[in-house]
Design brief:
Elements lengths: L2 H27 L8 H4 L11 H12 L3 H9 L4 H28 L6 H8 L2 H30 L2 E4 L2 E4 L3 H28 L3 H21 L6 H17 L6 H26 L12 E2 L3 E2 H8 L8 H8 L11 H26 L11 H15 L4 H34 L6
Antiparallel strand pairs: 1-2, 3-4
Helix pairs in contact: 1-5, 1-14, 3-11, 3-14, 4-14, 5-13, 5-14, 6-7, 7-10, 7-16, 8-9, 8-11, 8-16, 9-11, 10-16, 11-14, 11-15, 11-16, 14-15, 15-16
Length: 426
C-alpha cells in the first residue's frame, strides 16, 4: 500500500477526532473562557505563569513527544503495520487524547493541583503517598534511560578492538551537541525578551524562529567533539537547571523553539512521502504471536504507549501545563490537540520505517531511531539539501525528542518529591 494514502487516512481520522470528539468533550465537561485559571490565581513567577496558549501547546507537545511515538510504532510493526496503525488511531482519539485533556481539565479546575494532590483530595493521603513514591521512582528510571540516550547521541568516540577512537559520525554528533547548548542559551535569551518586551503573536513567532535558526547555524559551524561521560555530565547539569528555574526563563522558550524543529521534521517527512509516495514494504499482518516480542496482546499495547495512550502524559498535563494555561479555552488544543499530533508523528514514523524496509518486507537495519533518522534525512537530501546538514538536523531532532521529555520528567520528579512532604493548603 502507498504510504501517502496511510498518512492521509490517519490525518483525516485524527483531525475529525479533534474537531468532533474533542470539541464534544469540551462542551460536555464545561469550558469557561471567562474563568480565572490557576496561572493567575496562584501566579508565582516560577511554576504558575500565565502563558499564551500556543506556547503551552508547544511545551505540552515537546514534553510528551519523546522517544515513544517513534520507537514504539517501529518496534511494534513486527506484528504488521495494520494492527499498529489501528491502535494508534483508536488509542490516540479515544484514550490518549482523552486522558491528556482530562488530566489537564481536572487540574485546572482544581487550582492547578498535580495528579498526586488530586489523588489526596478525592481518595486520601495514603493514595497520594503511594502514587508520589511510584511517580518519583518512575522519573528516576526515565531520567537514567533518557540521559544515557542523549549522551550517546552526542558522543563522538567509539571503542574498536579495545582502543578509543573518533567515530565516523563524530562531526555530526558534535554539531548536534553544540546545537543543544546553543538552544539552551538562546532559549534563555528568548525567555527574557518575551518577559521584558511582552512578545506575542507574530513578533513572538519570528523572534523564536530567529533564535532557532541562530542555534542551528552556530552549532553547525562549531561542533563540540566530546566523549559520552562529558555529555552525560552536561545532560544532568541541564536537567537540574530545567527542573528549578522559572518556566518562562528556560523550559517554555526552549520547548517553543524545539517545536520549530519538530515541525520541520514532520513537514519534511510528510512532504517526502507526498513527493516520493513510497510503498509500505512492511507486511500488513504477521500473526498474533511474534518470535521475538511474544503475543500481540498485551505486547502491542505496551510497546505503542506514547502515540496511543500514556500515563506519563497526565503528569505533564497536571504537573506543568495546567499551571501555565491562561485561558480555559486553550485546554482543548493543549490537552487533546498535542496528543493527536503525537499520534500523527507515530504514524509518520511507521510509514518511514515501511518505506525504508526492503521490498520483501525485511525491516531496515539499525535501532528505530536510526531507521527514522536515516529515512527522513534521505527525504531532505532528495529535496537538494546537504547530506551533512540533513544528518545533523535529524540527529538533533532525535536527541531533542528525548531531551525535551527528559527535562519535563526532571521537573515533575522534583515537584513530586516536594509534594511527598508537603501539606495541601489550597
Amino acid at each position: 500500500m502507498n504510504t501517502l494514502v496511510i498518512v492521509l487516512i490517519a490525518a483525516v481520522c485524527l483531525l475529525c477526532g479533534y474537531m468532533v470528539y474533542g470539541r464534544w468533550l469540551a462542551k460536555t465537561w464545561g469550558i469557561d473562557p471567562k474563568a480565572k485559571t490557576p496561572a493567575y490565581t496562584h501566579e508565582d513567577g516560577q511554576d504558575y505563569v500565565p502563558t499564551n496558549g500556543w506556547i503551552v501547546f508547544s511545551h505540552q507537545f515537546s514534553s510528551i513527544a519523546g522517544a515513544g511515538p517513534v520507537t514504539g510504532a517501529i518496534q511494534a510493526a513486527a506484528f504488521g503495520w495494520v494492527p499498529v496503525l489501528l491502535w494508534i488511531l483508536v488509542g490516540g482519539v479515544f484514550f490518549g487524547a482523552v486522558t491528556d485533556f482530562g488530566a489537564l481539565y481536572a487540574s485546572v479546575k482544581n487550582e492547578g493541583k498535580s495528579m498526586g494532590l488530586l489523588i489526596e483530595k478525592y481518595i486520601g493521603k495514603t493514595g497520594k503517598r503511594l502514587f508520589l513514591i511510584f511517580c518519583w521512582l518512575f522519573t528516576l528510571i526515565v531520567i537514567a534511560a533518557f540521559a544515557d540516550m542523549v549522551a550517546g547521541t552526542f558522543n563522538a568516540y567509539t571503542v574498536k578492538d579495545g582502543v578509543t577512537e573518533l567515530a565516523a559520525a563524530a562531526r555530526t554528533n558534535g554539531a548536534a551537541g553544540s546545537i543543544s547548548i546553543a538552544f539552551i542559551v538562546f532559549a534563555m535569551v528568548f525567555g527574557v525578551l518575551q518577559k521584558k518586551l511582552n512578545l506575542e503573536g507574530k513578533s513572538e513567532f519570528f523572534v523564536g524562529l530567529a533564535c532557532t535558526v541562530a542555534s542551528l547555524a552556530i552549532g553547525m559551524a562549531f561542533p563540540l567533539i566530546g566523549a559520552k561521560d562529558a555529555w552525560t555530565g552536561f545532560t544532568f547539569a541541564y536537567i537540574f537547571f530545567a527542573s528549578v528555574l522559572p518556566m518562562w526563563l528556560l523550559k517554555q522558550p526552549r520547548d517553543y523553539m524545539t517545536t520549530f524543529m519538530f515541525a520541520g521534521m514532520i513537514l519534511g517527512a510528510v512532504v517526502g512521502i507526498v513527493v516520493a509516495h513510497p510503498n509500505m514494504n512492511l507486511p500488513m499482518y504477521t500473526g498474533f504471536t511474534n518470535e521475538k516480542l511474544g503475543n500481540m496482546f498485551p505486547i502491542l499495547f505496551v510497546t505503542v504507549a506514547c502515540g496511543a495512550v500514556s500515563g506519563f502524559h497526565s503528569l505533564v498535563s497536571s504537573g506543568t501545563s495546567s499551571k501555565t494555561v491562561e485561558n480555559e479555552k486553550d485546554m482543548l488544543k493543549v490537552g487533546y490537540g498535542a496528543m493527536v499530533l503525537e499520534s500523527l508523528l507515530a504514524v509518520i514514523a511507521l510509514c518511514v520505517a515501511g518505506a525504508s524496509a526492503a521490498a520483501d518486507g525485511t525491516p531496515a537495519d539499525g535501532t528505530p531511531f536510526q531507521v527514522f533518522s536515516r529515512g527522513v534525512a534521505s527525504f531532505f537530501v532528495g529535496f537538494g539539501l546537504d547530506q551533512h546538514f540533513a544528518s545533523v538536523f535529524m540527529t538533533m531532532c532525535v536527541s531533542a525528542l528525548a531531551l525535551t521529555s527528559l527535562d519535563a520528567v526532571a521537573r515533575i520528579g522534583r515537584m513530586s518529591f516536594q509534594e511527598l512532604f508537603s501539606v495541601d493548603d489550597m
